[in-house]
Design a protein that fits this description.
A hairpin with a 4-residue loop joins strand 7 and strand 8. This protein is mostly beta strands and 123 residues long. The strands form 2 sheets. Strands 2, 4, 5, 6, 9, 10 and 11 form a 7-stranded mixed sheet that branches. 0% of the residues lie in helices and 53% in strands.
Length: 123
């Protein structure tokens, strides 16, 4: 399975942006899919994840820093996971990566990674 993340860009504080993570070469409907981000000089950190938990049931998880502002969703028919980011702040600036694997907040449980997309929040 290959993942491709796209949708990043340069926005102003308070703006919104939607990232997408598209899978090819297989399906990730039974994987957890997460978004991580990495700012310059910092470790890659967990942002949000969504995992399949039975027929038509998914659970979503968020870091405290994005809870209430970001929403993760998935469209298994399109093999795509989205991250809707609202009320963006300068501290959200980072390269955002999507990953597929077993749910956790650690990078180590995800086997598949997208290439990253840059999000810059600046006035």
């Amino acid at each position: 399975v290959q993942l491709q993340a796209f949708g990043g860009g340069l926005v102003q504080p308070g703006d919104s942006l939607r990232l997408a993570c598209a899978a090819s070469g297989g399906t990730f409907s039974h994987y957890a899919v997460a978004w991580f981000r990495q700012a310059p000089g910092k470790e890659r950190e967990f942002v949000a994840a969504i995992r399949w938990s039975g027929r038509y049931t998914y659970y979503a998880y968020y870091s405290d820093s994005v809870k209430g502002r970001f929403t993760i969703s998935r469209d298994d028919a399109k093999n795509t996971v989205y991250l809707q980011m609202n009320i963006l702040k300068p501290e959200d600036t980072a390269v955002y990566y999507c990953a597929g694997g077993t749910y956790s907040v650690s990078v180590s449980t995800y086997d598949y990674w997208g290439q990253g997309t840059q999000v810059t929040v600046s006035s």
